[in-house]
Amino acid sequence: MQFSRSEVERYLNMVGDENPLHSTIVPGQLIVDRCMTTLGVTWMHFTINYRKSVMIDEPLTIQNTDAQTIHILNQSQEVTIQICKN
């Protein structure tokens, strides 16, 4: 999974996000939304722990570690985002 500049720009326009940081960094909520959609997760309550920034065009891997935890990993296998069901 990865996010192109045009995908990020469309998302930012849609949500009205003008944060200049997002010219190079993918918004975390966009990553979480895609991850949960890809996995078909429909949790009503969850906690997100943003650990590392994700750059535009950076390859990511989704790791569903158990029934209540999802990790999104970068190429170095570092957890960039952790999603935990509450």
Structural overview:
- By secondary structure, this protein is of the alpha+beta class.
- It has one domain: Hotdog Thioesterase (Thiol Ester Dehydrase, Chain A, Roll), CATH 3.10.129.10.
- It has 2 helices and 4 strands; from the N terminus they run ααββββ.
- It has a 4-stranded antiparallel sheet with strand order 1-4-3-2, with helices on one face.
- The protein is globular.
- The mean pLDDT is 95.
List keywords for this structure.
86 residues, alpha+beta
* CATH homologous superfamily label: Hotdog Thioesterase
Spatial extent as radius of gyration:
13 Å
What is the terminal-to-terminal distance? 25 Å
Helical content stands at 25-40%
